[in-house]
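seq:
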Amino acid sequence: MFYIIGISIVLAGQAGQGIQTVERLLTRILKLDGFHVFATKEYMSRVRGGANSTEIRVSSEPVRAYVDAIDILIPIDKEAMKRLEPRIGTGTLIVGDTSYLGDVNNLLEVPITELAKDLGNKIYSNIIAVGICCGMLDVDMNLAKDYVRTFFKEKDDDIISKNVEAIEVGFKRGKDARDTNLISLDISKDDSIKDDLLLHGGEAISLGAVAGGCNFISSYPMSPSTAVLVSLAQKTEELDIISEQAEDEISAINMALGAWYAGARAMITTSGGGFALMTEGLSLAGMIESPVVMHLAQRPGPATGLPTRTEQGDLALALHGGHGEFPRIIIAPATIEECFYLTNESFNLADEYQVPVIILTDQYTIDSYYNISSLDPTKVENTRHFIKTGEEYHRYTITESGISPRGIPGYGKGLVCVDSDEHDQQGHITENFTVRKQQMDKRLRKLDGFFKNMQEPAYHGSESPGTLVVGWGSTYHAIREAINRVGDESIAHVHYSILHPLHPSTGDILNKAKKVVIVESNATSQFGRYIRAETGIKTDATILKYTGEPFSVEDIVKRLKEEI
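struct:
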């Protein structure tokens, strides 16, 4: 018998076999039935074939991180077993057919493909797999069938009925396993979460943009950032958003700058290769002092790298991209909630300080999701920072704060003159060395006010820690669960969601610890090097991963135990 408290279910197959359909169906059914869920996927850069999988964690308590361990594995083809072999343990229950699985340990034999063919097409294999999981977890079958009908409502009646039948067939097999005590799952349901939101990072970023007043997006598709473009494009008519798929990334950023100049709130979304093409436009934003919100969804490079995998490899690019010197703000949301709230706030920051705000996510953030209670857009009040101009208006007036009043063409009587060359206070081109220095100094002191109101990094644990774990962005939940598993009260955790400017308390925070360990999904500890450059403090140890896979909880537990 397998006795499991909280489980990790992995479903695997080829691209084109509907693994993502399984993920969407199962997670939503489980959430509606009162289970806490987390899901993330790994997939190859191909339309058909290969070996793709999705991990779904199901628990009585909130669960928000990826694990290596597989409790129940449902492979829909033979290649999946080879791919996932390193993660299969002695306690893994494998559900499938010996015709393609062969002789494996801990097998619950279910002829999934043959059962699907009996329904008329092997395409129903994935829905049978959903039913098996529902049966094992004692899901309300009427709820499951109703959701299947809703999910396939655009299909004809025959297809809908076949999918309902498929989930019933699978459910019976899963229920039989539970009733015969082959598997026992000690997971309780919580009715209070049935109305929770279930969002992936891409959806949360796009909703945060909408809440931040975004009414223009111009981008060129590039995985994994495309999810944000698609999400906003789907809302164009409903929310009066202009969505433009540009011919390339250079056009995309210049369109966004033009939109801000005209008074819109615009963003672009891209990945590393696209951001590289945008760096001239990024520098243009620095010179003309234009707000712009740039979402950079990281994936492994250099060049095309691993297009569908994850990495925190573009921090240095975001920090140093562009020519010349100009201020910018870099944000890296740690949670689904922060994807929403910090994106919302990014539009206010860009507007107020007239600088590029770069939101750093990664494939893991964009494609992972879990249930959350709610999002409240009223927590961040949108404030506009342009003025009605007078006849004597000068766009680049020297001010103590470094922020010049921003006018919008046609709003007032003033001429809003901007220029990519160095310029005087009116916006006219100049090569006067004194004016050059005045304008540079003005631009560089813009963020002095931001420093005074910066969000503190999240801190958990002892104020005098033996070991301090430093993280940023998407590693947050894996680090939190890993520290809980290690169970050593001398470990503290500081996590950064605002990366640049670096919070001025960083030196004091790091100096409290006997040992500082940094966790990053890159090969050179880019954030660690940045901290050293800013504070002079070198971290004592690094926990790095750059295979293209996300950090698992087990990865961090193992390394923390070694470092402690």
